[in-house]
Amino acid sequence: MAAKVTMPSLPEKPLSNVPLQLHQPKNFQFDSVPESHAWLDLHDHPTVEPIGPDTVPLIDLTDPKLTAKISKACEEWGVFQITGHGIQPDLLTRLEAQIHRLFALPADLKLNAAKSPGDVSGYGLVPISSFFSKLMWSEGFTISGSPLHHAQKLWPDDYSSFCDVVEEFDNVMRQLGNKLLHKILLSLGLSKEDIIRACPVRDWHDMSAAVQLNSYPPCPDPDRTIGLAAHTDSSFLTLLYQNSVSGLQVLRPKDHTGPMRWVTIPPVPNTFTVNIGDLMHVLSNGRFRSVMHRAMVNPAKHRISVGFFCGPPMDVKVGPINKLTGPERGPVYRPVTWQEYQRLRRKLFDKALEAIKIGEEIA
Ligand code: OGA
Ligand code: NI
Fold first, then answer.
1. Coil, helix or strand for 263?
2. Tens of pLDDT along 64-107?
3. Is the dihedral of CA 130, 37, 139, 209 positive or negative?
4. Taking CB atoms and a 6 Å cutoff, what residues make up the pocket around ligand 1?
5. From the CA of 197, how far away is ligand 1's center (Å)?
6. What is the pLDDT of residues 300-345, one digit of tens each?
7. What proportion of the chain, given as a percentage, has pLDDT over 90?
8. What residue ranges are annotated as transmembrane (predicted)?
9. Is residue 73 within a helix (H) or strand (E), and if so which, with residue range?
10. Is the separation of the CB atoms in 112 and 183 below 8 Å?
């Protein structure tokens, strides 16, 4: 069963038509949280520290028992952290420096690289903002394809240092994402041959990916606002890098250790947090559930994060893998492409997965 969460403040009017300048007056230099950014319902469930049974699994990708560990983590959590991934710390340091360079630019310069209406790439509000009447305490920069066009607008004379790091990151993360995708499919009990037959991604060149840079400025009253509202990702899986400032939380269902609760996923140097997205939920026929998560803000420190979203090639339909369906549990979801699913999400947000349930199509 998908985790249920109270959605904060239903949109009274969509924000997508409001000029971006109005969204971030004074570049977050507020003495207090203005009404535009004040959220209700943030304390729908208790928040717990990552200790004891609420410690997110940390998995070394070189572990001989890797498949079993991933299987357990995906079933019990839908999220885990990884070491032994082979991504050089130096690359992450250089990427972090470029992200700080980007978000430290004056607001009017950043607006030169604003997303055009209907476009996914560029600077602006985080992608889910249009569903809420309140604004989030964050800025985002989405990269789908090459960042060249936008980077040239930000730094006409020095765009290549940004583009080079992003390209290097994109390359190694695609390979890591593809490796993880295959490990997750193995952990569902599929054989290598099954995976060759059924996996929508044949090799890492084939995978669709998007990079989301997030910036969460320090906030004078962090309990009144949110950096990124609760959501699931539409991807197969997402790899998240966070700097040393805590903020990511996942929703854990009620179980024998406690009630439904928000669990902090602490930043651990040189690790990535991997979470299951809606399309993996579909591919596994609901066995590996996509996980609800959100980002809180910090009173003193600037938090940044990088989401790397891995999905199928844009024209490939994803449905439950045959071998994972059976006589007593046939396919639960109808096949969709990532693009079709993203379109549904833009329309229905947290109801999109429900909408592709066989027998319950509402869109
Ligand atoms: C996202 C996301 C979490 C974070 O970009 O989809 O969930 O900590 N980010 O920034
Ligand atoms: Ni997310």
1. strand
2. 999 999 999 999 999 999 999 999 999 999 999 999 999 999 98
3. negative
4. 212, 214, 228, 233, 240, 242, 247-248, 293, 295, 305, 307
5. 32
6. 999 999 999 999 999 999 999 999 998 888 999 999 999 999 999 9
7. 79
8. none
9. helix 66-76
10. no
Phi, psi torsion values for 30, nearest 5 degrees? -100, 150
C-alpha 248/C-alpha 349 separation (Å) is: 20
Average pLDDT, the chain: 90
Nearest CA to ligand 1 atom 2: 307
Selected catalytic residue, list 303, 334, 343, 345:
303
DSSP string, 91-140: HHHHHHHHHHHHHTS-HHHHHTTBPPTT--SEEES-GGGGG-SSPPS-EE
pTM summary value: 0.93
The pLDDT of 179-202, averaged and rounded, is: 96
Q: Is 174 noted as a catalytic residue in this protein? A: no
* Amino acid at position 358, single letter: I
* Residues in the 5 Å CB sphere of ion ligand 2: 233
Query: Measured between alpha carbons, how far is 268 from 246 in angstroms, rounded to an integer?
Result: 9
CA distance 359 to 253: 26
Query: Phi-psi category of 28—alpha, beta or left, where left has phi over 0 and alpha has psi -120 to 50?
Result: left
